[in-house]
Specification:
The protein is α/β, with parallel strands linked by helices. Helix content is 37%, strand content 25%. The longest helix is centred in the middle third of the chain and has 18 residues.
């Protein structure tokens, strides 16, 4: 029998006394063989990232190993001091973090960050370090590696930054690669590229991979075996085919049932045809100027036109950089368009000056992607929801009473009105964001990647909530997303955006069944696990 690269034996990670449970991870045992990919899945708070941080020796100070062992090629990592762990990190275990922009140093060039890995371990001469950095950037598929080696992280796309993280993790050819939600924030085509890259590198180098994710589509693409965690406990483990096709535990079954299908459900026809939102020939150009380089222009929105009826959901889908979020923000005039016409019914929103815009902005509201960053951490939930109506003349007491009603409408207790955002989970915070948007009784709701950062089960709850509220209030919804599974479940029509232009529009079911544009076909083909979760 092959000796495992990683063997976790009876691991317990104790939480501080005030936590809602005693252990972040409790009695978890796992193994990974050379060249094998083990996917650890579960909802937020299940303990999957804690396991990764324990292997790397990067646990928060408040979390302590209480029992068990973590053996890397037979050596117990929990018994090593910090100096020994510094030698293990990079040389024997590499890690790809979820958000490369916060993991990379913003003031260091890309090549220097890879070279730093060799310097930390005292390896190679300066010339050899630079040559090896370029070789790694080439190996992870970056175009023009010599040019990108001199770039800073903010000059790269999200997918390119994640490739740099992979290059850094593989620099010293570690035995074990840990990937902690490495594709969560990426669009489907970039996500497919990163998954293929990790799998190819695993096969080439025989590296063991611990892949942490909440996305069963990703799991279906990359896993050899699957371990399912619930509140710190291992509830199911087995081969990918066995767990995906014949799950034994009820929790696994619930997670799989929550994965959005690629088959759009039947939706009743839209009763009203008069547009509540009309966009005609919308244009937005971003101009990048530099003292050292000639300026260049990027057309984020180019001749965009669409209509949206009351009770209808129109999905704007496309890769990162396609311009879909720019269009959504231009509709609210959070970004000023360079041209075109935006109308709410008979009101031409794009013609209004600042004073008139403030008066009418309540008719179109937004739910943002990150519910924590978009909520004021110093204000109570009641204040957050009621501030909009108060600004438009509603007495504070009346606005707070309405805030309680809205909290119950979005599935929270009215008692939450006196609590603060940090006291809620991610899904609950998104519900608060929806309540805030509804407080001004808008005609149009713009949802910008409103569920992309959520677990599949919480995502399913929020999608159900949005559909329910739409039916009750007759809202028109502009739904911005890169997730075609989500779009399939909630959108009546879809507009596909590529490089600032709409390349295809149509009813969701017809567009999914028979896409006309090559780019649309590429997006649909790139959805992880699309074949397995088609129904």
């Amino acid at each position: 029998m092959t000796t495992p690269v990683l063997a976790i034996e009876g691991l317990k990670l104790a939480l501080p006394a005030l936590a809602d449970r005693a252990f972040a991870v409790e009695d978890v045992s796992l193994t990974i063989a050379p060249g094998e990919t083990l996917c650890v899945v579960g909802e937020s708070g299940s303990g999957k990232s804690m396991i990764a941080h324990a292997v790397m020796g990067l646990l928060p100070k408040a979390v302590k190993p209480a029992a068990g062992a973590i053996r890397l090629a037979g050596r117990d990592l929990l018994a090593l001091d910090e100096a020994a762990m510094q030698d293990v990190r990079g040389r024997e275990v590499g890690m790809i973090f979820q958000e490369p922009m916060t993991s990379l140093n913003p003031v260091m060039r890309v090549a220097d960050q890879i070279i730093e890995t060799f310097e930390a371990h005292g390896l190679h001469s300066n010339a050899e370090r630079h040559a090896r950095a370029l070789a790694l950037l080439t190996e992870v598929g970056l175009p023009d590696p010599e040019r990108l080696a001199k770039a800073y992280p903010h000059e790269l796309s999200g997918g390119q930054r994640q490739r740099v993280m992979i290059a850094m993790a593989l620099a010293l050819e570690p035995k074990l690669l840990i990937a902690d939600e490495p594709t969560t924030a990426l669009d489907v085509t970039t996500q497919a590229q990163i998954l293929k890259l990790i799998d190819n590198l695993r096969r080439k180098h025989g590296t063991a991979v611990l892949f942490i994710t909440h996305d069963f589509g990703v799991v279906a693409e990359i896993a050899d075996r699957i371990a399912v965690l619930k509140q710190g406990k291992l509830v199911e483990e087995g081969t990918a085919d066995a767990v995906l096709s014949h799950p034994r535990h009820d929790y696994t079954k619930r997670l799989l049932a929550a994965v959005p299908s690629m088959t759009p459900p039947e939706r009743p026809p839209i009763a009203e045809t008069v547009p509540v939102l009309s966009v005609e020939k919308l244009g937005k150009v971003y101009r990048k100027r530099s003292f050292f380089r000639p300026g260049r222009e990027v057309k984020a929105a180019d001749d965009i036109s669409f209509t949206l009826a009351r009770g209808e959901t129109l999905g704007l889908v496309g890769e990162s950089g396609s311009g879909k979020s720019t269009v959504g923000r231009c509709c609210l005039r959070l970004i000023e368009p360079d041209g075109g016409r935006i109308a709410l019914g008979d009101l031409v929103l794009s013609d209004l000056g600042p004073a008139a815009l403030r008066e009418h902005r309540k008719r179109i509201q937004m739910v943002f992607q990150d519910p924590f960053a978009s909520l004021n951490p110093r204000q109570t939930v009641g204040r957050i929801i009621s501030d909009g109506p108060v600004a438009h003349g509603t007495p504070r007491a009346q606005a707070l009473g309405r805030a309680k009603e809205l909290l119950e409408l979005v599935g929270l207790s009215a008692n939450a009105i006196d609590r603060y955002p940090h006291e809620f989970s991610g899904g609950q915070r998104q519900r608060i964001g929806i309540a805030r948007a509804l407080a001004l009784e808008p005609d149009v709701l713009v949802a910008d990647e409103a569920v992309s950062a959520l677990d599949v089960s919480v995502q399913a709850q929020i999608l159900t909530l949005i559909k329910d509220i739409q039916q009750r209030l007759g809202l028109a919804i502009l739904f911005v997303t890169h997730d075609l599974r989500v779009a399939a479940q909630i959108c009546d029509r879809i507009a596909v955006m590529q490089r600032g232009r709409i390349v295809e529009t149509g009813p969701t079911a017809a567009l999914f069944a028979n896409p006309q544009h090559e780019y649309t076909r590429q997006l649909l083909a790139a959805v992880p696990g699309g074949r397995r979760f088609a129904l």
